[in-house]
Design a protein that fits this description.
single chain; alpha/beta; Rossmann fold; seven-stranded parallel sheet; two-stranded parallel ribbon; globular; binds uridine-diphosphate-N-acetylgalactosamine
């Protein structure tokens, strides 16, 4: 029986965590419905036991959880604008799916569930950096859905004794992030467009800032969260990020250098549900996990551009 289950294993974050586990010789099962994940992302993960399944179905959750010790729950319908366009779909694939997974994990006597939380939980309050003591203030359906999952984690720790750890990711980017969907993360979209010589669009004035976090830092945080003693981490929420931020305009300038693109961006109205500034306080993850970012933003962006240059995914 595999020790680990990764949900969303054919998605960008899930496949990267699965790869990190396999690289150190761990046994891994993955599940994905291919709503957002891609079969191409499974290349290189042949050592993983893979189930095609949908967490909205309790039976699929039960199959996935059988016999595993630790679940890394990365499956979700990411994207703020997607949730604005179809809030019920986001709720089904984030909230209902997470609850089904937790019930199955409890019934299968899984020891620990690690949950992919989102920085969107903090909303648009002016306080920077965002720390975990702040009252959540979700402003999009996506943020509400991801935050509801966090609350379910904590409730399952309190009432059923299931160990849970919430990692609030801040704008993750890197190789394997899908650049082709209208709901893709901005750095994946920009890398693809600039390498193809196509003009990118900045929504708003480009002054909005993010704590863009390279995928290897997120995988590292998950491995630490899996290994940390329960008395330190169970029932806890912690930011996983870099503790630095950069504006979209500044990011575009760096990407111009890295890609050789010579044009200017187009500007369009800001998106509904968008947040102006985001920056993490990462001291709690440092204290509880010994987490430190392994790769800084510029180096992460350089590696990401090289990956898109080599792979050219559609
Ligand atoms: C939110 C969360 C993030 C993660 C993500 C999942 C915050 C601060 N972050 O990311 O942690 O959960 O959702 O989807 O809530 N943009 C452009 N041009 C484009 C695409 C995007 O200008 O072609 C802008 C967009 O309006 C936003 C910024 O780039 O201001 C980042 O957008 P995003 O969709 O990459 O991520 P964001 O911040 O909504």
């Amino acid at each position: 029986m595999p020790q680990y289950l990764v949900t969303g294993a054919a998605g960008f974050i899930g496949r990267s965590i699965a790869a990190a586990l396999l690289a150190r010789g761990d046994s891994v099962r993955g599940i994905d419905s291919f709503i957002a994940g891609k079969r191409a992302n499974l290349v290189g993960l042949e050592a993983m036991e893979f189930l095609e399944g949908d967490l909205r179905k309790p039976a699929d959750c039960a199959r996935a959880c059988a016999g595993v010790e630790i679940v890394l729950h990365e499956a979700a319908l990411a994207s703020v604008p997607r949730s604005v366009a179809a809030p019920a779909e986001t709720n089904d694939n984030c909230v209902n799916a997470t609850l089904n997974l937790l019930v199955a994990a409890r019934d299968a006597k899984v020891r620990r569930v690690i949950y992919a939380g989102s920085s969107s939980a903090y909303g648009d309050t002016p306080t920077l950096p965002k720390h975990e003591e702040m009252l959540p203030n979700p402003i999009s359906p996506y943020a509400v859905a991801k935050l509801a999952g966090e609350h379910y984690m904590r409730a399952f720790t309190r009432v059923y004794g299931l160990e849970t750890v919430v990692l609030r990711y801040f704008n993750v980017f890197g190789p394997y992030q899908d650049p082709a969907s209208p709901y893709s993360g901005v750095l994946a979209v920009f890398c693809r467009r600039l390498l193809a010589g196509e003009q990118p669009t900045i929504y708003g004035d480009g002054g909005q800032s993010r704590d863009f976090t390279f995928i290897e830092n997120v995988a590292h945080g998950n491995l630490l969260a899996a290994a940390a003693p329960a008395e330190k981490v169970s029932g806890q929420v912690m930011n996983v990020a870099t503790g630095t931020r950069i504006t979209l305009n500044e990011t575009f300038a760096i990407l111009r250098e890295l890609t050789g693109y010579r044009g200017e961006p187009a500007y369009a109205p800001a998106r509904a549900g968008d947040i102006r500034d985001s920056l993490a306080d990462i001291r709690r993850a440092e204290t509880l996990l010994g987490y430190r970012p392994q790769v800084d933003f510029r180096e992460g962006l350089r590696r990401t551009v090289e990956w898109y240059r080599a792979v050219r995914p559609d």
